[in-house]
Amino acid sequence: MNAVMTLNNGTALSIQHVTKAFGPNGGTSVLSRLRRRTPKPNGNGKSERVIAVNDVSLDVRTKEIFGILGPNGSGKSTLIRLMTTLLLPDTGQVQVFGLDVTRHEMEVKRLINRVSVEAAFFKKLSSVENLLYAGRLYGLSGQDARRQTFEILRRLGLKDKEISGPLEDMSRGMQQKVAIARAFLTRPILLLLDEPTTGLDPRSKREVQAFVQELRQVHDATIVLTTHDMYEAEALCDRIAILDDGRIVALDTPAGLKKLIPHHNGAEPTLEDVFMALTGKELIKEEDLVTI
């Protein structure tokens, strides 16, 4: 924890020359074997090595909202798992506020939390009951867990009836806000939001996006956000990295990224134009995928 107290270069997250591969000789822990993507068979019927993250380097500044855009299979989820200690890098280094995720795993876990696209809840229980349960798992005393639970939920704008009602009766947007509130029980100074608005209706998306902005403004949290929504990325993120085939192909502010390609018929390019020009791919949303 001393590294956190003495860090003065304004960097919350530092990823330097990180590579992660799966398949033959890939994977560095039980978790990595459990969570790896299925290796592709080669012509001999044997699995081949798949490089999910390929020599990635980036720094996220304190109090920044940093976005990661990429098509499906680009390595976004693997990169997030490397930040959370769920996976270990094969090469390179990941540091959270000066703490190496490999050598200081438990200290890093106390500084971070993650919200994924499908937040797991006990749907028959209320939001209060879900947060109280999580608070005790995080090691909070019963009194502290209850105090923080009501404080956070009321700040979210939940009324007493909503707080005490079953979570399954809430909208998806409200459930995602509760998921972020649950993650915030530990007072993380680095919050990782992995596709937090995928599948939400427009109103619910706006609710979650507004809460993300509030987290940064009120709590000085540093936020890393992966998303398929270009408008969301531009509205929320200070800087954005575009990831393709495990590599960063561009990293800049939204305005800086749009300067990378020329105007067309006098119109300023959109982030989607930039993405397609740099990757040659469309950004397919998870909810648009069809399982055959």
Explain what this protein looks like in three dimensions.
The chain is of the alpha/beta class. It has a domain at 65-85 and 102-124 and 166-288: 3-Layer(aba) Sandwich (Rossmann fold), CATH 3.40.50.300. Helix content is 37%, strand content 22%. The strands form two sheets. The protein has a six-stranded mixed beta sheet with strand order 6-7-8-3-9-10, sandwiched between helices. Strands 2-1-4-5 form a four-stranded antiparallel beta sheet, with helices on one face.
Task: Give helix and strand order, one letter per element, not per position.
Answer: HEHEEHEEHEHHHHEHEHEEHH
CATH C-level class of the domain at 65-85 and 102-124 and 166-288 is Alpha Beta
Question: Percent helix among the residues?
Answer: 25-40%
What fraction of residues sit in β-strands? 15-25%
Please tell me what the overall shape is.
Answer: globular
Strand order of the largest sheet: 6-7-8-3-9-10
Major sheet: 6 strands, mixed
CATH 4th-level superfamily of the domain at 65-85 and 102-124 and 166-288: P-loop containing nucleotide triphosphate hydrolases
- What's the architecture of the domain at 65-85 and 102-124 and 166-288 in CATH terms? 3-Layer(aba) Sandwich
Could you name the ranges where pLDDT drops below 50 across 5 or more consecutive residues?
1-8, 28-38, 285-292
Please state the CA-atom Rg, rounded to the nearest Å.
20 Å
